[in-house]
């Protein structure tokens, strides 16, 4: 909700009006987590290490690029990763569901499909994380399970936790839902193993992720062009991600001229009518996550911009080494 990140009087009033509900949300969350910690509620411990990539706030903070980066880094070390996801927006006939790289994104969900296509790692989606892990371990030789989201899913025991923070919006007004965007209070950060800032440094960590674009890819032909080739051409852009402005700003920072931009809700289920207003004689740019859903009705001048995560910070190497050591101990 936009008022979570605004500072005017109406936004503050809305936040305080909803504050009793936020207190109830926090109390229920606190009791639930305490019950798991005291083993009064049953949790699941897999036979291989589990690494959670999550966040404290609602909305897109950049977890999926981090997940892809982690899988690729571990693959370079000879580690076989399996990825689980709730599969938000998916419509598989049954769960757990193993994602195929040629899946329709309406079946698998956009982010799980993107992870599978970019990494080649086995990806399983299910609201029941235990079932997803058990299916992966039954069909693949996995050394490590990486969970894309699930920080607050305490039914799943974990060995490592990463929290991704949006460096632009951080934690908004600082309230828990529904007064604000937080699922848990910032004090939860004291317990996690690595905090990654997406885009800008924050007071919580010196580990910084930059999403680096290098080229644009045509949705129909697969042709690749350097982004500099578009600098003298008027462009349009759409983004169906948690924070569309991040994508638009990235393009503008590359000296690209955006005539029209339109943000959609995260995990937007696109169809051709969403693009009727854009002139066909101008290139239309979108994220790679959007592109997996738009190929069936794409036009010849539609392009997506893949990004590579560049994660730097003094805590990154020790964290990666700790995970590798845990994997070695479990074997």
From TrEMBL:
| Enzymatic class | transferase
Keyword list, A-Z: ATP-binding, Glycosyltransferase, Kinase, Lipid A biosynthesis, Lipid biosynthesis, Lipid metabolism, Membrane, Nucleotide-binding, Transferase, Transmembrane, Transmembrane helix
> What is this enzyme's EC?
2.7.1.130
Q: Where does ATP bind?
A: 57-64
Task: Name one cellular component (GO) term.
Answer: plasma membrane
The metabolic or biological pathway listed in the UniProt record of this protein is:
Glycolipid biosynthesis; lipid IV(A) biosynthesis; lipid IV(A) from (3R)-3-hydroxytetradecanoyl-[acyl-carrier-protein] and UDP-N-acetyl-alpha-D-glucosamine: step 6/6
| Transit peptide found in the keyword field | no
Q: Name one GO molecular function term.
A: glycosyltransferase activity
| ATP-binding is among the record's keywords | yes
Query: Which Pfam families does the UniProt entry name for this protein?
Result: LpxK (PF02606)
Q: Which domain of life is it from?
A: Bacteria
The record lists the catalysed reaction(s) as: a lipid A disaccharide + ATP = a lipid IVA + ADP + H(+)
TM ranges: 13-31
Q: Which GO terms describe its biological process?
A: lipid A biosynthetic process; lipopolysaccharide core region biosynthetic process
Q: What does this protein do?
A: Transfers the gamma-phosphate of ATP to the 4'-position of a tetraacyldisaccharide 1-phosphate intermediate (termed DS-1-P) to form tetraacyldisaccharide 1,4'-bis-phosphate (lipid IVA).
Instruction: Write out the similarity annotation.
Output: Belongs to the LpxK family.
> HAMAP family from the xrefs?
LpxK (MF_00409)
NCBIfam families reported in the protein's UniProt record: lpxK (TIGR00682)
| Name by which UniProt lists this protein | Tetraacyldisaccharide 4'-kinase
**What lineage does UniProt assign to this protein's organism?**
Bacteria, Pseudomonadati, Pseudomonadota, Gammaproteobacteria, Pasteurellales
């Amino acid at each position: 909700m936009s008022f979570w990140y605004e500072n005017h009087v109406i936004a503050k009033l809305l936040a305080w009006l909803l504050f009793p509900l936020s207190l109830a949300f926090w109390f229920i969350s606190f009791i639930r987590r305490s019950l798991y910690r005291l083993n009064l509620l049953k949790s699941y411990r897999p036979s291989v290490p589990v690494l959670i990539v999550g966040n404290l706030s609602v909305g897109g903070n950049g977890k999926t690029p981090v997940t892809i980066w982690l899988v690729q880094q571990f693959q370079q070390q000879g580690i076989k990763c399996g990825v689980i996801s709730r599969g938000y927006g998916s419509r598989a006939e049954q769960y757990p569901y193993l994602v195929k790289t040629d899946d329709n994104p309406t079946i698998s969900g956009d982010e799980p499909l993107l992870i599978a296509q970019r990494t080649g790692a086995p990806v399983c989606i299910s609201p029941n994380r235990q079932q997803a892990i058990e299916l992966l371990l039954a069909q693949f030789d996995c050394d490590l399970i990486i969970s894309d989201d699930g920080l607050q899913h305490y039914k799943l025991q974990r060995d490592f936790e990463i929290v991704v923070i949006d460096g632009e919006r951080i934690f908004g007004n600082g309230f828990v839902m529904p007064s604000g965007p937080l699922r848990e209070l910032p004090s939860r950060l004291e317990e996690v193993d690595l905090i990654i800032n997406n885009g800008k440094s924050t007071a919580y960590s010196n580990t910084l992720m930059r999403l680096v674009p290098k080229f644009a890819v045509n949705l129909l032909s697969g042709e690749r062009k350097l982004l500099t080739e578009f600098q003298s051409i008027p462009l349009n852009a759409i983004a169906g991600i948690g924070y569309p402005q991040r994508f638009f700003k990235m393009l503008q920072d590359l000296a690209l001229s955006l005539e029209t931009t339109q943000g959609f809700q995260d995990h937007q289920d696109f169809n051709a009518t969403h693009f009727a207003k854009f002139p066909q004689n101008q290139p239309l740019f979108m994220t790679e996550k959007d592109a997996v859903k738009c190929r069936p009705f794409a036009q010849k001048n539609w392009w997506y911009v893949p990004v590579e995560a560049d994660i730097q910070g003094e805590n990154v190497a020790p964290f990666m080494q700790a995970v590798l050591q845990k994997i070695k101990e479990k074997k």
